[in-house]
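Dear colleagues,

As part of the handover before I leave the project, I'm documenting each prediction I ran so the next person doesn't have to rerun anything. This entry is a single chain, and its sequence is reproduced below.
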Amino acid sequence: MTASPHSSGLHHLELWTADLAVSEPAWDWLLTTLGWRREQVEGWGLGRIWRHRDDSYLVLEQSADVLGSRAERRSPGMNHLALRVADRAVLEEIRATAPGRGWRELFADRYPHAGGEDHVAWYGEDPHGIEVELVAAG
């Protein structure tokens, strides 16, 4: 198969938060643990960027246009963000550490197969209700 001259894949994802000071520590810990690199943007006090090695990036931004204080994954729009992790050991490390880093585990009674018997993943929710699924390779 010949590669397309137009690259496809994620360019960036922008998540809005009601309170950057509350959300940022949780996201910084998670993304840097997963190998994303934090980038500083001078003069932009209400947003943060983390870049993946494939050059895609995630933006976390506090905006005056945010409605409400929590994300609601059951409403129209994004339900959750799913990211790949290297293996089950990474999931175990994150699961053990996440509660002290601002994350609330979801579906704990079904870990690690909440997504199905052949699916190994950890599900968490940030301080403002944004759900993340971490899927182990394999």
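The chain has two helices and eight strands. The chain has a mean pLDDT of 93.

All the best with the project,
I.
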